Amino acid sequence: MGHAAIASTLLDVSAAEEPAGPVSRQERKQRTRQALLDAALDLLADRSFASLSLREVAKGAGIVPTAFYRHFSSMEELGVALVEETTRTLRGLLRGARTEQRGYGGMIRASVHTLHRHVREHEDHFRFITRERYAGPGAVSRAIAVEMRMFSSDLALDLARFDPLRTWPTEDLHLLADLIVTAMLGTVAELLEIRPGDTAADERTLVAAEKRLRMILLGVPHWQP
């Protein structure tokens, strides 16, 4: 590559990565990193993660392909970052919703409605999670599995506040939490299948989700660890 071409490339990278106004180098880097995540998510609207190329993600973010490596070491690392972006906020919201409740009924209702709001606000993220949970590249599907275990661990801690769960062994609490998380993932998949604007279908799905969780918890008083 000649000097003119190199200079042109450097200018392209600089222009793409530097927004208007005085910002720090770290802020520019963070904005470009987020642009890469957003570009990947846009491309994933109707495609699998494995079908994405680094080149098209970089193009969508407005940078040259070589600049991608300033932010991620590989496409799989970008995929893992997308998983974390999708789940971390929801984990905090669900824990907050649960800790404000004193009984099973309130906890179930608050959790289901918190999940519903977050899914509706971030549908592309959740389509990515549900599609790649089993079919994604190794690092991505493993990252999703880790996040699901963290959801279960958080829930197990919160469930231990209630009688008679206070006396349950940790292993049994985690099994119960796994059942609930699996049911919630089913609710996410159902919500994503609903046509935009179909509020009646949304409501039916939420009612069914609450019933499903109540059915799971009905057996709690009768379980002998």
TrEMBL record:
<dbReference type="Pfam" id="PF21943">
    <property type="entry name" value="TetR_C_46"/>
</dbReference>
<feature type="DNA-binding region" description="H-T-H motif">
    <location>
        <begin position="53"/>
        <end position="72"/>
    </location>
</feature>
<feature type="domain" description="HTH tetR-type">
    <location>
        <begin position="30"/>
        <end position="90"/>
    </location>
</feature>
<dbReference type="Pfam" id="PF00440">
    <property type="entry name" value="TetR_N"/>
</dbReference>
<keyword id="KW-0238">DNA-binding</keyword>
<keyword id="KW-0805">Transcription regulation</keyword>
<dbReference type="InterPro" id="IPR001647">
    <property type="entry name" value="HTH_TetR"/>
</dbReference>
<dbReference type="InterPro" id="IPR050692">
    <property type="entry name" value="HTH_transcr_repressor_FabR"/>
</dbReference>
<dbReference type="InterPro" id="IPR054129">
    <property type="entry name" value="DesT_TetR_C"/>
</dbReference>
<dbReference type="GO" id="GO:0003677">
    <property type="term" value="F:DNA binding"/>
</dbReference>
<keyword id="KW-0804">Transcription</keyword>
<dbReference type="InterPro" id="IPR009057">
    <property type="entry name" value="Homeodomain-like_sf"/>
</dbReference>
<protein>
    <submittedName>
        <fullName>TetR family transcriptional regulator</fullName>
    </submittedName>
</protein>
